[in-house]
Amino acid sequence: MDSFLFVLEVLLTMVVSFSPLIIYFVISISLQKIAFNNFYECIGYKGVVATGIIGTTLHELAHYFFCKLFRFRVIDMSLYRPSSVDNTLGYVSYTYNRTSVLQTIGLFWVGYAPFIFGVFYLWGLTYLLLGLNLFGYANELTSSKGVEFIVYQLLEHVLLGFEALFWSVYYAGWAGFIWVMVTSSILLHMMPSVPDIKGSWPGFWLMFLISFVGFSVAVLGFESDYRLYVDSVYTFSLSLTAVLCQILSILSLLVVFSFLIKKTARLIAVLYSKCRKF
Questions:
Q1: H or E stretch at 94
Q2: DSSP letter string over 91-129?
Q3: Percent of the chain with pLDDT over 90
Q4: Which of 13, 36, 165, 199 is deepest in the core (most CB within 10 A)?
């Protein structure tokens, strides 16, 4: 087999196998950015900073946990200390052993820790305040009908979760209001920051290299083993995406909520402007 075609086949196999997760992260980051921009337009920088009291604290705790898990040396940390100089709300400073494979891989997990922990924060909060098990709506997806059907199922998962969340919040009263406030704070700050993503690259590329070697061995092996390996990775990717889809449901609800706040703020501004003319 030509070396270029071999590398291309392995790369395409990896992309296809992890495609559900790739699609998920693109959509979730886009939704979070829309909601963040809407809130920023309504409440400004100081308002967003205020939401970080909960969100940023949990964000930095997640970094700290994975630093300790991978035995990094934590130099300094601040769970919540807004700075107008570099626009940071908190930080965890650490060092690691550059010759350690495990700690290099840990860079990826430390960088994306806020998102990973954010999923569990939201699950626990939703179960505690709304009595709703987010993961209970995550039935395993099936890949038997092609990519288009998978996308349809993902949307179906999101819509079912959105409907369940909407009515749970509606009937929960004050608990629902608290859920919206705390969830908004978590969601606005659960995504990795630009420094987090930059710091995670060495770990990502090392994991990519290990995955590439694994897929290469699968491609070079017998056809049955190759298909079994790829199908198992793809099935895992689908199952994990099905669970994470419930976070998309919450993000969708947050986007709707942010648009309502944005429109309300604009309406109040127009009414206030007209009242001042009289």
A1: strand 91-95
A2: EEEEE--TT-HHHHHHHHHHHTHHHHHHHHHHHHHHHHH
A3: 13
A4: 165
